[in-house]
Design goal:
transmembrane helix; 255 residues; MetI-like; mainly alpha; membrane; 73% helix; MetI-like fold; ABC transporter, permease protein; transmembrane
Length: 255
């Protein structure tokens, strides 16, 4: 539907979705447009500069979160999986509880902390909470749990220290869990609406998710093309990372 709508003229798209806009339930959406046109695509690429700004904003808000999760969540997951220390089970239980809490519950505490730090209405108000998310820790830990103890014992006998074991054994063997966690985090961050809407007041910092939400009925063609551009990265990453996602979920015991 979205891909065919990207090739429709504004008039044809509005007519096809007329049942939604005039309050009736009758909607006729052809699989192939009656008069295919590249007009919406040209309009987005040449006459909608704010689209490129928000596409770039989406990248800026998303990829630093993934880098932060890899640098912070993977060592934390390795520590939970392979080290024994006092309060480990209690701390991991707290991580799990925080993972289950929806954004609506954490919104006010996050807002107060970010406002106190002076980070409101900056990209860091989105990047930092995402980078310290507890969800990747849970997935990565379950992936690290699947590494045979005999491999770690062999590395220890060879004189490998804790950091060396993590870098040379933990990371390579834990790739399925790491990539599956980052893939799921990418989809969540790329499509985020509530966090940018609450923490970003300046529209020049908005991601594409908010750009699409503010397109009017008169710009239905632009909405379809913008939706395609927003959907393509998710589809491509999912297709190329599907194997690791399945392996990661299987190793984590979630399936």
């Amino acid at each position: 539907m979205i891909f065919s709508g990207a090739l429709m003229s504004t008039d044809e798209a509005t007519q096809s979705l007329g049942g939604i806009f005039d309050g009736t339930s009758a909607v006729h959406w052809p699989l192939i447009p009656n008069s295919p046109t590249l007009q919406p695509l040209i309009e987005v690429l040449l006459d909608t500069p704010e689209f490129f700004v928000m596409f770039w904003n989406t990248c800026i808000l998303t990829f630093p979160q993934l880098i932060g999760q890899f640098l912070l969540a993977s060592p934390a997951a390795w520590a939970f999986s392979r080290f024994t220390f006092r309060g480990r089970n209690l701390l991991f239980t707290i991580y799990t509880i925080l993972m289950l809490l929806p954004f609506q519950v954490l919104m006010v505490p996050d807002y107060l902390v970010l406002d106190r730090l002076g980070l409101m209405d900056t990209i860091w108000s989105i990047i930092l909470p995402g980078a310290v998310s507890t969800f990747p820790v849970f997935i990565m830990k379950k992936g690290f749990d699947g590494i045979p103890v005999s491999v770690l014992e062999a590395a220890e006998l060879d004189g490998a220290g804790a950091i060396t074991t993590y870098i040379r054994i933990g990371l390579p063997l834990g790739i399925p869990g790491i990539l599956s966690a980052l893939l799921l985090s990418f989809i969540e961050a790329w499509n985020a609406i509530e966090q940018p809407l609450v923490f970003l007041k300046s529209q020049n910092l908005w991601p594409m998710s908010l750009f699409l939400a503010n397109i009017t009925q008169d710009d239905i063609g632009i909405a379809m093309v913008a939706s395609v551009f927003m959907l393509l990265p998710v589809i491509l990453i999912f297709l190329f990372g599907q194997r690791y996602l399945i392996l990661g979920i299987q190793s984590s015991g979630v399936a």
